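TA notes, week 10

Several of you asked for a full example with nothing omitted. So below is the full record: structure tokens for the whole chain, then the designed sequence directly under it. When grading your own attempts, check the secondary structure regions first.
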């Protein structure tokens, strides 16, 4: 078995540790000590790893230097020192401290319109969360959302949140689609930018049904009256593809019963959606197929609806669709709903 001999040196003195098993051994170096580890394998080959555990006083001096750079407008130098402090914290496995420094530095720089420097530190936040294998909790949810909102560049802002959504999967998110509050923040950003299609896709994963209705209502004001039912039907089908029957029902009922849209939603397509929900409640495969045939003309108004319905048929009634392998149209469409977004 490989062995590990630890030597901690301070000045000219040395404290030598006994040979310890490599596996399962954890050692935290004292602050201000120069440390090295010697790993010896069965063949006698050795690898040396050296690092410095930085003391609180040295960190304090770096933080003072950061404040000096910020006051002098030397933002690039400040960002470099922020990164150094983060790295030292991470080296000592103080990931919570490293993340807080990166987030605070990022927000300060972004608020001063130092986009490039702030964006770099923001990206560090997600990398450190992943590196430290930290679990998503309320503190980190708010930290990520605050950092997201501090961005001014739309592309960098979206990229940051998509990275955070991807990280959240498997790190404490209750949803396999990523943290709902992150999807909500991204949906609100898209809606404010008038990108209602992208906003709707993330609202479907946010759990905020009333907020989604509000976005659909804003979107409905921008399209032809004859297209309003398409917006609602698309959202209903997306919820059903994600097996969120409650969301589909809420969206449909609230908008159909809204006096502003009631007349525009009195269409065959909306009636199809209403019948579809009842069919899914009954687990009636023949009725599902009959509905698709009867309302084919309405469904064909949007090319994506057929693919959504194929997926719904496979999910709820185990109806197989020929030619739905990887790279197929249905597969590609579902990937946009189910897979974590690429940063």
């Amino acid at each position: 078995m490989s062995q590990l001999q630890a030597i901690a040196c301070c000045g000219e003195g040395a404290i030598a540790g006994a040979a310890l098993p490599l596996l399962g051994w954890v050692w935290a170096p004292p602050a201000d000590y120069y440390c090295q580890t010697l790993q010896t394998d069965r063949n006698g080959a050795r690898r040396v790893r050296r690092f410095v555990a930085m003391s609180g006083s040295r960190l304090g001096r770096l933080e003072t230097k950061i404040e000096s750079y910020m006051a002098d407008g030397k933002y690039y130098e400040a960002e470099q020192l922020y990164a150094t402090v983060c790295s030292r914290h991470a080296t000592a496995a103080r990931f919570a401290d490293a993340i807080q420094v990166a987030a605070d530095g990022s927000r300060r720089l972004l608020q001063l319109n130092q986009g490039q420097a702030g964006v770099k530190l923001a990206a560090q936040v997600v990398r450190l969360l992943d590196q430290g294998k930290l679990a998503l909790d309320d503190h980190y949810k708010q930290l990520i959302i605050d950092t997201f909102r501090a961005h001014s560049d739309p592309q960098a802002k979206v990229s940051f949140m998509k990275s955070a959504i991807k990280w959240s999967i498997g790190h404490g998110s209750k949803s396999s689609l990523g943290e709902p509050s992150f999807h909500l923040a991204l949906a609100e950003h898209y809606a404010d930018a008038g990108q209602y299609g992208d906003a709707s896709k993330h609202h479907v994963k946010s759990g905020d049904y009333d907020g989604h209705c509000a976005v659909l209502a804003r979107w409905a004001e921008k399209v032809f009256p004859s297209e309003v039912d398409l917006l609602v039907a698309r959202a209903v089908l997306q919820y059903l593809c994600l097996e969120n029957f409650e969301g589909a029902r809420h969206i449909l009922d609230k908008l159909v019963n809204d006096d502003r849209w009631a007349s525009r939603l009195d269409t065959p397509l909306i009636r199809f959606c209403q019948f579809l929900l009842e069919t899914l409640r009954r687990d009636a495969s023949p009725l599902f197929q009959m509905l698709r045939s009867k309302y084919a003309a309405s469904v064909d108004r949007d090319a994506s609806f057929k693919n959504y319905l194929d997926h719904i048929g496979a999910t709820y009634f185990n109806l197989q669709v020929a030619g739905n392998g990887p790279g197929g149209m249905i597969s590609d469409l579902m990937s946009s709903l189910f897979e974590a977004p690429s940063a």
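The radius of gyration is 27 Å. Use that as a sanity check on your answer.
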